[in-house]
Amino acid sequence: MAEEELIQTPKGMHDQMPEDCAYFSRIENACRRLAKDYRFDRIDFPILENAALFKKGTGETSDIVEKQMYTLRTKSGEILALRPEGTPSVVRFYLEHGARTWPQPVKLWYWGPFFRYEKAQAGRYRQFHQFGFEVIGGADSTLDAQVINIFYRLLNSLRIKDLTVEINSIGQLAERENYKKALVKQLKKNQSDLCPDCRRRLTRNPLRILDCKEATCQEIVRQLPHVVDYLSPECHQHFQEVLELLGELNIPYRLNPHLVRGLDYYTRTVFEIVQTNDEEKKALVGGGRYDRLVDLLGGPPTPAVGGAAGIERIVQAMKESGRRVSYREKPEVFIAQLGPAAKKEAMRLFEELRQRGIKVAEAFGRDSLNAQLKRADRLGVKYVVIIGQKEALEETITLKTMSTGQQRLVKRSQAVSLIKKRL
């Protein structure tokens, strides 16, 4: 009989190995610490959202909505989407739960999986993970700088090197519309040289052309006017204040006049934190100000700013920078046992040591004492507790110091306190 083909993960999805889970935990702990320091409150929102949330918020002409969103129809006819990003969900939460009545600005952060039907390739997955920090209800430039600062400090705390903030301002809606007109006028002169996607974007979302990675489009983009030349005095002032604050915080930044973060809701400040290594540039964080999004989703005009970071990308950056995270704590004590009565006593002792905060290991599934001692040696423990049938009957243990090989018979009642004292 032929063997059945193994069922594997869907294309673009991936399992998290124990090592990667340890990296995720380290990053999440760093998020919790900074969230506490800067007084951001954690929220979680559904993996499934109403698809209209992203059509209105992210934008119907965005690649996320047009090409990458997973949607489904429920039995009752609702059109739902696996969340492709977090910011619209945060704003929906803000409106639905009456956070407008809370002290402003409201500072929120989130963590979890997201989904986009993208071309599967190294480092880019269809299920991926992000965390985000969002500030809703504040227009001051200090909030833009604070959000950038949080992400930058977090990456620094994870010992990721070669970081730079790329930053731009795309102004308010009226200024951006004027810029779009100038952009389209210039791009139409080179329309035939644009890639098929950008020819389509020319009439629907011309700002997305600035994000195109095709070489021919990038060459055209380099000749285009800059959005900062179309900013109002107020937006110029806001942007200047953000840059000055980044300077005060000693955060390295670079003006990128073609950075637009092509989602409909962005206004004024847009930024990415990139790692530049061996002439390769990797974006780890992206975000900006989105003063229109609350309005787009049915609320009153409300200023807001935030960003999100790709966790898989950060894990890869940590590995490449030599940052190693152990997914198993090194044990201090190993319990070896021989015989049924000894095994029962060993399990009781394991729990007592664990409850006293002692890192302890065992191999209860093995009966060979020699095999257990070899495992203890490989683990590099300081002490081995040996319990045989004789020790179990006499209520004693044998305590072996691994560095010297010295063995000592100890009363069972004194074992935990003696081991705790030695450690």
Structural class: alpha+beta
The coarse silhouette is: elongated
Broad CATH class of the largest domain: Alpha Beta
Query: Which value, in Å, is the CA radius of gyration?
Result: 28 Å
Explained architecture:
The chain is an alpha+beta fold. Helix content is 40%, strand content 22%. The protein has helices at residues 18-38, 51-59, 63-68, 87-96, 141-157, 173-187, 196-204, 215-221, 233-248, 293-296, 311-320, 340-355, 369-379, 389-394, 412-422, and strands at residues 41-42, 48-50, 71-73, 79-82, 106-115, 127-136, 163-169, 253-255, 267-277, 280-289, 304-310, 333-337, 360-362, 383-387, 396-401, 407-411. An eight-stranded mixed beta sheet has the order 1-5-6-11-10-9-7-8, sandwiched between helices. The protein has a five-stranded mixed beta sheet with strand order 13-12-14-15-16, sandwiched between helices. A hairpin with a 2-residue loop joins strand 9 and strand 10 (280-289). The chain starts with 17 loop residues before the first helix and ends with a helix.
